[in-house]
Design a protein that fits this description.
Strand order of the largest sheet: 1-2-8-3-6-9
Strand content: 15-25%
Radius of gyration: 23 Å
Largest sheet: 6 strands, antiparallel
Structural class: alpha+beta
Distance between the termini: 65 Å
CATH architecture of the largest domain: Sandwich
CATH class of the largest domain: Mainly Beta
CATH topology of the largest domain: Jelly Rolls
Order of helices and strands: EHEEEEEEEHEHHHHHHHHH
Number of domains: 2
Number of helices: 11
Length: 267
């Protein structure tokens, strides 16, 4: 791997994409401690080979590092490398208002500066693509590649719980019952869903039911009452009021505007 780097200066329009790359590259270090410093932006360092420690945070805590691993560096947070062997690494610098949402959703967590992977192939492919795209002067492709790396590499804790809850969403139950079905306390369920989605179990169930209802309305010739029951509501009138309040139109109006076929079915 040759050492190389590129530094980018996004324009005003590129910054409106919400997430933008400020630099990327690859390098090799010997087993020598690097000076401590703090960045003015976020950074990801994909360690492909090597082991050692990452010094991180105001208390200068040392975290064990062994490749393959991702080092997550945060604006204004002190860090320093302490390689015990040669390190081969790729890196990317990024910023933008989308980092606030990524933090709320648990993808950027200053308390997890080192993450390792049982199967690193997805992360490695995503980072390799990002490095390639970084030299091609396409802001949209680069932003997409950056999101892909973060999504592949972050895997927020609780992601499986949120997916399991979404699978149960069409079964009418209380939050307590959903938690019991998943073998969790209510607090554990709430914490897991918040880390992944930034919302509550109730909101995740509601949004999943509405999403499922939209699919049925747009793609099936089903009466609204049947759609309501299939997504978890025994009262079609209540379902219709809820759908209109959340979506901004009635189920039948959505069917007319949201369906490619434009089919209309009656109650």
């Amino acid at each position: 791997m040759q050492n190389w780097s590129i530094y980018l200066t996004p324009g005003a329009v590129e910054r409106q994409l919400g997430l933008f790359c400020l630099g990327a590259g690859e390098q090799t270090h010997g087993p020598d401690a690097a000076p401590e410093r703090a960045l003015g932006c976020h950074a990801l360092v994909w360690l492909k080979e090597g082991r050692g420690q990452l010094l991180h945070g105001p208390d200068r805590q040392l975290h064990e590092v062994r490749a393959p691993a991702m080092l997550w560096l945060f604006p204004g947070v002190i860090h320093g490398y302490r390689p015990a062997t040669r390190w081969r690494q790729a890196w990317v610098l990024f910023s933008g208002p989308a980092t606030a949402a990524l933090t709320s959703l648990g993808h950027l967590d200053v308390n997890q500066p080192v993450r390792r992977y049982a199967d690193p192939r997805g992360v490695d492919r995503a980072f390799t693509r990002l490095l390639r795209v970084s030299t091609q002067h396409s802001a949209v492709q680069l932003t997409g590649a950056l999101y892909d790396v973060i999504g592949q590499a972050s895997a927020p804790a609780g992601g499986g719980v949120a997916a399991q809850l979404a699978e149960l969403a069409s079964t009418p139950m209380s939050v307590q019952d959903y938690a019991s079905e998943l073998g969790l306390t209510v607090k554990e369920l709430r914490d897991a869903v918040r880390r992944t989605t930034g919302s509550t179990p109730h909101e995740l169930v509601l949004s999943t039911r509405l999403s499922n209802a939209k699919v049925l309305l747009a793609e099936e010739d089903l009466p609204v009452a049947v759609v309501a029951r299939r997504v978890g509501y025994d009262d079609p009138a209540y379902f219709s009021r809820l759908f209109a309040a959340r979506v901004g139109m009635s189920p039948l109006a959505f069917r007319r505007s949201g369906s490619l076929s434009g089919r209309i079915s009656s109650l």
